[in-house]
Specification:
417 residues, globular, membrane, transmembrane helix
Length: 417
């Protein structure tokens, strides 16, 4: 009794003193009171579960590569006519009389990326031997279609050797793709960097950016002067209407251009072409990405590609023929612009990319041809590179227009951090 009474008295004293035992915290309050908060993670990839992943990048790259194959196989798209023979007459076992090792190498190497991209695009729905077989069949169908349509082009000759080498190259690429698919798409460091540096919905944009250095391959009158379509349209209209048409002169009139104006135009083309491509890349990056290094890598790859192409198409002495006073000035101005815009808001980067690309297109399509470049171009013999040149010319002309279409897509709001 005394112990119980004493305990009750102690309890009463505690209540009288106003001391209350601490109440348990609710889960939400406990979380709020925690002094340590985990760092926010990048938004989850909608296709990112713990299982195998499909690759939107591979599918977009496959579509772009198929379009390049179509253009290269049917270039120059003129003189369509029927030869009177069966379109499948080339499907025979007769050996070709005229062929070179270079042609065989180009056919095999040219279709190897197609096979690899087919396998990567089918992953994970088809893997291993099934993916290789499906890609091999796809390569046969694509190559067979290209050879069949060439029957109606006077400048092209379909052959069973082309079909065989193209299909073999596609099969070899499919085997390589099957061996690398899991590492590239599920476990590779490349995928981890892509997720860490770029937005979730950046797949199509990354394919577009990867094509920009290749768009510099075809010889152009101005550094980064892609999208020059009026001269080609003038040529097509002249042939169609059987009269001499110059759309550039129609737009400019009889107004001449001074050396200073020409130099300024070349500076604008180089600066805006480079800035437009780099800003398109920056629109796709996250805040923690090494933006300046990515931009420098893109521009450096474009310059190296252009230098190697100039050396290959002309002579090694002309490898740096693209370096002119106007190009140098435009390059420096473009670098200054990008240094200031590298960390600007993505909405501003996207809008400025549209403005610079449009300005570059306007200037490059209204300035007269560079006389020095025209004289250099006369020494260019396309020869064995006819197919490749057609694809390179097509890519160089359409890249700015595809970039503008991509930049104006409303889906860019998904890339905002």
């Amino acid at each position: 009794m005394s112990d119980a009474h004493e305990g009750g008295a102690q309890g009463g004293d505690a209540r009288q003193d106003g001391v209350q035992p601490p109440a348990p915290l609710a889960p939400a309050a406990a979380a709020q009171s925690s002094p340590v908060q985990p760092a926010p993670l990048p938004p989850a990839d909608p296709e990112d579960d713990n299982g195998p992943r499909s690759s939107p990048v591979a599918r977009a790259a496959l579509l772009a590569y198929v379009l390049l194959i179509v253009y290269a196989s049917w270039f120059p798209f003129t003189g369509w006519r029927s030869s009177g023979l069966s379109p499948f007459a080339f499907l025979n076992l007769q050996p070709q009389r005229y062929w070179t090792g270079f042609d065989v190498m180009v056919n095999v190497v040219g279709y190897m990326p197609l096979g690899a991209l087919l396998v990567l695009s089918l992953y994970p729905a088809l893997r291993g031997i099934l993916a290789v077989l499906a890609a091999g069949v796809g390569g046969i169908l694509i190559s067979g279609t290209m050879e069949t349509v060439q029957n109606f082009l006077p400048s092209r000759v379909p052959s069973n050797l082309d079909l065989l080498t193209n299909s073999g190259g596609c099969l070899a690429g499919a085997i390589v793709g099957a061996l690398l698919a899991r590492g590239l798409l599920d476990q590779g460091r490349l995928y981890q960097l892509r997720r860490r540096w770029f937005s979730v919905h950046a797949s199509q944009g990354l394919v577009l950016i990867a094509l920009w250095p290749l768009a510099q391959v075809y010889p152009q009158g101005f550094l980064f002067g892609n999208g020059q379509v009026l001269p080609l349209l003038s040529e097509w209209l002249s042939e169609w209407l059987d009269t001499d048409i110059d759309l550039v002169m129609l737009l400019r009139g009889d107004a001449g251009i001074t050396v200073e104006q020409y130099w300024l135009s070349e500076t604008v083309i180089t600066a805006c072409g480079m800035a437009g491509a780099a800003l398109t890349l920056l629109c796709l990056t996250r805040r923690g990405a090494p933006r300046l290094w990515l931009v420098l890598a893109l521009i450096g790859t474009g310059l190296v590609t252009k230098t190697l192409a100039s050396s290959l198409f002309f002579t090694p002495e002309n490898a740096l023929v693209w370096i002119t006073p106007g190009a140098e000035g435009g390059f420096l101005i473009g670098l200054i612009m990008l240094a200031g815009l590298a960390f600007a808001p993505q909405v501003a980067q996207r809008r400025l990319a549209v403005v610079t690309l449009v300005l570059s297109l306007v200037v490059v399509n209204t300035i007269p041809a560079n006389p020095y470049f025209v004289s250099t171009l006369q020494a260019w013999k396309q020869g064995q590179f006819l197919n490749f040149n057609g694809a390179a010319q097509f890519l160089g002309m359409v890249w700015p227009f595809i970039a503008l279409w991509f930049l104006l897509l409303p889906s860019h709001r998904l890339n905002r951090p």
